[in-house]
Amino acid sequence: MRELLRSLPALSGTAPAFDPDAVPDDPLALFADWFTTAVERGVPEPHAATLATADVAGQPSARVLLLKDVGPRGFAFATDARSAKVADLEVNPQAALNFWWQGVIRQVRVTGSARYLGEEASAVDFLARSPASRAAAAAAVPPGQGLASVTDLRDAMTRSRTRVEEDPAFVLPTWQAWLVVPDVVEFWQGCADRAHVRLVYRSTGQGWVHRLVAP
Ligand SMILES: Cc1cc2nc3c(=O)[nH]c(=O)nc-3n(C[C@H](O)[C@H](O)[C@H](O)COP(=O)(O)O)c2cc1C
Questions:
Q1: Which protein residues touch ligand 1 with a CB less than 6 Å away?
Q2: Which residues form the Pyridoxine 5'-phosphate oxidase dimerisation C-terminal domain (predicted)?
């Protein structure tokens, strides 16, 4: 493995032009710009992000999920209330989100606190999912619960699919939309010569300040 790992290239994407002296005051605007560029440059699944949480004892855990919205208030995702991440966030709302866009050598790191967006936003998110993903979410098998076999899960999903198709307005009561409200947003632009650009925005409570830091 050691040899294999050392043989692999890193930072092999193509960096778009980026001038850290000509950035917007609001990091959410810069995020939208970088995200759009990632989509235009064909970065696969740029909306997949790693969410890190920590439990009451401080034990961290991280998992990939999909970004559902981004706007002036923060970064939205959706999940099941019975999941470990929600158990973590209920006792410790501090969270981090990480995006890595290989094709453009860009990383975005977000830290902040997460809050539940309420029943209405959660229902809107659930109903916007495809029938297959609504059925999968509603398969009555809570995330993390032990399974005897994958066949059991498929059977539960088939029953759930019928229910979702018969009642298109059905909303899984445990489906929740959450928002990560950022305190710090870091934009990392990799460069082939290793003079990487790290631009860190920090919330002041009234607005944002930003500065360059060493990579
Ligand atoms: C590409 C990708 C997208 C995913 N999107 C979501 C998502 O939007 N919401 C979600 O709850 N889990 C999503 N998952 C599954 C999570 O990674 C994770 O397995 C699940 O949420 C349980 O995590 P937890 O036990 O830490 O709460 C996704 C996984 C992958 C690989």
A1: 48, 61, 63-66, 77-80, 83-85, 143-144
A2: 175-215
ipTM: 0.99
Q: What is the pTM of this model?
A: 0.95
Residue whose tokens read 């032990």: 146
Nearest to 186 by CA among 161, 150, 160, 212: 212
Task: For residue range 68-100, list pLDDT tens digits in order.
Answer: 999 889 999 999 999 999 999 999 999 999 999
Mean pLDDT of the residues in the chain: 95
Query: Which of 43, 45, 50, 63 for mutating ligand 1's site (highest number of atoms within 8 Å of CB)?
Result: 63
Closest residue by Cα to atom 10, ligand 1, is: 79
Ligand 1 centre from 59 Cα, in Å?
18
Give the span between the Cα atoms of 131 and 151, in whole angstroms: 20
Check pLDDT > 90 for residue 200: yes
| Ligand 1, atom nearest to 61 Cα | 26
Separation between Cα atoms, residue 154 and residue 194, nearest integer Å: 47
